Amino acid sequence: MSWSLLFFLLVGAVSLAAALGVVTSRQPVHSALFLLTNFATLAVLYITLDAQFLAAAQVIVYAGGIVILILFVIMLIGGDTNDFSAAQRAWSRTVGIALGTILLLTVSYSVLARMAGPSEETAALLQGGTPEAVGIALFTKYVLPFELIALLLLVALIGALVLGRQQEGAGEGIPSVKANE
Amino acid sequence: MLDLAWLILVFPALGALINLFIGDRLKERGIQVVASGAVLLSFVVSLRLFFGLSGLDEHHRTVTVHLWDWITIGSFRAPAALLIDPLSVTMALIVTGVGALIHIYAGGYMHGERNYQRFFVYLNFFILAMLVLILSNNFVGMFVGWEGVGLASYLLIGFYFDRHDESYGHYADAGKKAFLVNRIGDFGMMLAVFLIWTGVGSVVFEEVSQGSGALATGTATAICLLLLLAATGKSAQLPLFVWLPDAMAGPTPVSALIHAATMVTAGIYMVARTHFLWELAPMAGSLAAWVGGLTALLAATIALTQVDLKKILAYSTISQLGYMMLGVGVGAYAFAIFHLVTHAFFKALLFLAAGNVMHGLPDGELDIRKMGNLRAKMPTTYLLFVIGALALAGFPPLSGFFSKDGILLHVANHNILLYLVGLFTALLTAFYSFRAVFMAFCGEARDQHVHEHAHESPAVMTRPLWVLAILAVVGGALNLPLVLTMEHYLEAAVGKPAFHPSVPMELVLLAVSAVVALAGVGLAYGRYLKSTDSVAGKLAAGITGLVRPMEPIARNRWYVDEIYAAWIVGPLLGLSNWFTQVVDQGVVDGAVNLVGQANLYLGGALRKVHNGLVPTYALSLFCGVVALLLWFVIGG
Amino acid sequence: MMLETSYYLVLAALIFTVGATGVLLRRNALIIFMCIEMMLNSVNLTLIALARQWGDLEGQIFVFMIMAVAAAEVAVGLAILIANVRHRKSINIDEINLLKW
Q1: What is the ipTM of this complex?
Q2: Total structural domains within chain C
């Protein structure tokens, strides 16, 4: 067993464990922290895949932006839903787990049955995902989608602003929620 | 000069439009001036056309004034063009001339009526449609006019659409009946035009005339039979005459203009216009002659028994149209048109005189049994009515005498049986017209209330009648026997008659007709004015007693309406009801409802799936994803 | 030595499945939200692994775009969540049935 494989297994195990933690935690705050872990391990894996720029972006955008945003929202509305005890939806849990299993099996089967490692020639083609390489691609060939993405972000910004705005007259602020207590 | 022929159409159109849009600001006076003026101007143009045409060489009196290309589809061509020839100019003169007089009369007659404006818009529209009918140089244009006059007729018969009485039922129904019965004829017209187009490849009269040689006799006969059907509809012949008596529900000027002088003659005109086709189909011609002869006889017998003055005149119109149909059937086109012209004069005169009677009596009374001795109260109308009746009776030397005998002359040569029918009808005609005269204007006043309130009509309603009266008296001079001006004039349009009677025969037949007319008048005199004690009275009573058993049949109009109701209208209505109730509501609506219900039910079932909860949607989404994946992995 | 791509893909599949199951099982809208983010990330991992496999930078550009879209989505999604909490006083997804209208 090579070191790289060992490293991958280690990081992958942490990542998977964090993913399970997100799903199983009762407290949303714990879920958020597990999510942060998951994102971080993925960033590490990106580096092993020669995607340095994306690894950095992953940390900045996901870990630094999105998770923080989620934590802010949790702070705002709190909220703990006792959702594992939802008896009336027991069947959906069974179905969910069954579906998940089938999904996992099919995907794994198809991956393992057909995929091989990268050949030497194709590997040589990849210049590596350095910020320089990605930047050049983004600002030459993909400049139009890039601009569109910028526009999308602006729209999302304004949309979030409009949606989150306090209604006129409803001055009591954001209530804290304890659902299904 | 002839290039300005389109003006003849422009004036009535303008008149109708002006009255339609600003008539409410013009008051009665203005409306009447506009409407009558428009028709008068058209008459002036017609006169110019007449003189312009007369100035041309005898053999070149057919002029086409092309206005614009109306329909051009492949080789099908229906131009908007006017055909100016002796026939159309004669018709145009009658339509605009008599029309103008009736417009003037109507101005007085309709005084104070509601919808004065609407009435004159319709009248001008009618004149326009009629002129389109007679001036078009092709079948399609003629058909437009044909339908236009049908529409105008419908609108004017139903002019008092809110009225209702015993003799006409709902007035609106009378209009509907006229329209529907006419549709049957119109259908024949359409089919005939289609056949002509497939057979000859043109709908322009001149081209059809030149190309008609290519038609097989069978096709030509079929075309002519369909045209005959069209003519029986518009000209109120057997079997489609039933609408005309009911059409008397319209205002009297309308009865005079449309249902006596002009529109109903469209069928006759159409046959004369297509004479080149009829010459190819002698069988259809004979049928037309028999239709005409029988219609003339039948309508005359009905006219004998009617008590409504206008209905007497209506049946008389049908009868006279029968004469014209008889004339065109035997190929005497010129005489048929001649009779059409004189008939327009004296029948318009009679109708307008009847309108005066109606106008002058309380409640618009028209029942001749309630009249009597109106001579004393309305002498002018009496005189006018008598002139009209004399002309109608064929009393020499009034116009009706010459025109009717022109037709009978040709019929005698063609078929002696039909001649006898025509002659007998002439006797009946003289009898019923003077029955009306004697019962209404002479003898004792039978209803004192009516008699006391009777009064003469204003000058605006008598002066135009004098013009018509003079024309009715001297109209015969248009085509004096042995001199033959009008017949000769029309030759360019309808061809020479195949038959020229010898002078002795002509004189003999004229004498016979005169005697018959005198006999009819004399019989009426004996029957209605003399007491049964006198010799003349006994004689008349004896003769009329012979046909007494026939009276109920004739009074009930030979049960034609009842037969139609029982055999055609009833089953048709039954079938329609079956279609509405079973086919439409059951099958068609049922299918639609079924689709609707099925969708509603399905929607109700599917609505449960659509519960608005995100997890449900997510679950179904995942099911789909997993299914797709399974399909790719296992199937692919 | 380069690791086989299939390892990464299997890992991504595992994370994706965990996320998907979480979406189906949890009721808390916030946690479902996080699960979706996780699923997105697993797909990102797949794309980057395949980009290396075929020696093509396009996969990485894709991931970049996904990140941007995810950021926009998070902003709008959380705003909706907050607006909903104001109205319904709840973040239980079973009580949010506004999608009916």
Answers
A1: 0.90
A2: 1
Residues of B with CB under 8 A from a CB of A: 615, 619, 622-623, 625-626, 629-630, 632-633
Burial of residue A56, with CB atoms counted within 10 A of its CB: 0-12 exposed, 13-18 middle, 19 or more buried: middle
Q: What is the pLDDT of residue B324?
A: 92
Chain B interface includes C101 (CB < 8 A)? yes
d(CA B318, CA B312): 10
Residue B531: partners with Cβ closer than 8 Å, 6 or more residues away: B537
Structural domain includes residue A89: no
User: What amino acid occupies position B493?
Assistant: A
State whether C28 and A81 contact (CB < 8 Å): yes
Half-sphere exposure of A19 (CA within 13 A, CB side): 29
* CA angle B128–B129–B132, rounded 5-degree value: 90
C29: CATH: 1.10.287.3510
CB spacing of C71 vs A61 below 8 angstroms: yes
Query: Is C87's Cβ below 8 Å from some Cβ in A?
Result: no
Same domain, B546 and B592: no
Polymer length of chain C: 101
**Where does the pLDDT of residue A180 fall: very low under 50, low under 70, confident under 90, or very high at 90 and above?**
very low
Quote the tokens at residue C92: 């239980």
Cβ separation B614–C99 shorter than 8 A: yes
Can you say whether the dihedral through the CA atoms of B258, B264, B265, B267 is positive or negative?
positive
Provide Rg for chain A, Cα atoms: 21
> Which of A25, A56, A83 is the endpoint of a domain?
A83
Domain count, chain B: 2
Token digits for A121? 């020639």
Specify whether A78 is located in the same domain as A141. Answer: no
Question: Are B613 and C99 inside 8 Å of each other by CB?
Answer: yes
Confidence of residue A41 (pLDDT cuts 50, 70, 90): very high
Query: Is A159's CB within 8 Å of C75's CB?
Result: yes
Contact B273, B87 (CB under 8 A): yes
CB spacing of A159 vs C48 below 8 angstroms: no
- Interface subset of C 4-43, CB within 8 angstroms of B: 20, 23-24, 27, 32
Domain coverage including residue C25: 5-89
Residue A9's domain spans which residues?
1-83
> What whole-number distance in Å separates Cα of residue B108 and Cα of residue B381?
15
What's the average model confidence in pLDDT over B602-630? 83
Residues B128, B139: contact at Cβ < 8 Å? no
**How many folded domains does chain A comprise?**
2
Q: How many CB atoms lie within 10 A of CB B240?
A: 24
Query: Dihedral angle at the C-alpha atoms of B603, B606, B608, B613, nearest 10 degrees?
Result: -110
The pLDDT, as a whole number, for residue B92 is 92
Same domain membership, residue A78 and residue A1: yes
Residues B526 and B326: their CA atoms lie apart, in Å, by: 31
Average pLDDT in the B227-231 region?
92
Show which of residues 5-24 on chain C sit within 8 Å of chain A, judged by CB atoms.
Answer: 5-11, 13-22, 24
Count CB pairs under 8 A between chains A and C.
277
Give the model's pLDDT for residue A115: 60
Per 3-state DSSP, chain C is made up of helix, strand and coil in percentages (nearest 5) of 85, 0, 15
* The length of chain B, given as a count of residues: 636
